[in-house]
Amino acid sequence: MTTKSKILLLHQQAEALREQDKLLEALKLYEEVIISYQEEKDYSGIVEALNGRALTYKHLFLLTNDSVFALLSQSDIFTTIKICDNRQLNHLKNQCIFNLAGNEMLFENYSAAVKNFQTALDHYNINDAQKGRYYEHLGEAQYLNGDTKNGLKNMLLGLEKIRENPSQTDPFLINVWESGCLLKLYKLTEDKKYLDNAKKIIDSDPRLIIRKRQMAKLS
């Protein structure tokens, strides 16, 4: 196995630990992955690993409500944007801007989140399930920023696009995105049909460990 293959395998293991809600274990492995990518001067790999670690910190913040985790997530995201600019990784920068918008949501900076989600959406040119994810995140930010009409419209549009384009994306991610959107819709509207539909998806896929925890909290 080549060095590159070994690092990629470690990276995949870190992602899997995060999705299994083994967040502290994931953080330890991400550190090893980031250092390994640095030794290989694989800057795209560093950006992707930092984005994964930022998401892990985000989950820890949502679990503990400790703002330090939100700040650590923010630091990693700012670093990814700087690396993208420094190394001209334009193909990765849009995802980093999307992640920055998600981090603004943690601090309830909804106006900034709307701006960054809109920028990320404007530069996303593929009509696939991922684009649906961009729409639903923009919609949530708009809704919480007071624009409930357009917010709900974009969330429902995002849900529709996720459901319309499953074939190009890992089925696990489709389940993550669709159930996440439904849980947000339930939280914002208190319409139980969204919770019921989310439950069907979550119950059908035992890998959705984080979603199961989130659903239990909402229920």
Notes on the protein architecture:
By secondary structure, this protein is mostly helical. It contains 11 helices and no strands. It has helices at residues 3-19, 23-39, 43-64, 67-87, 90-106, 110-122, 129-144, 148-164, 171-189, 192-204, 209-218.
Task: List the main descriptive attributes of the protein structure presented here.
219 residues; Serine Threonine Protein Phosphatase 5, Tetratricopeptide repeat; 2 domains; 11 helices; 83% helix
Helix and strand topology:
Layout: H1 3-19, H2 23-39, H3 43-64, H4 67-87, H5 90-106, H6 110-122, H7 129-144, H8 148-164, H9 171-189, H10 192-204, H11 209-218
Helix pairs in contact: 1-2, 2-3, 3-4, 3-5, 4-5, 5-6, 6-7, 7-8, 7-9, 8-9, 9-10, 9-11, 10-11
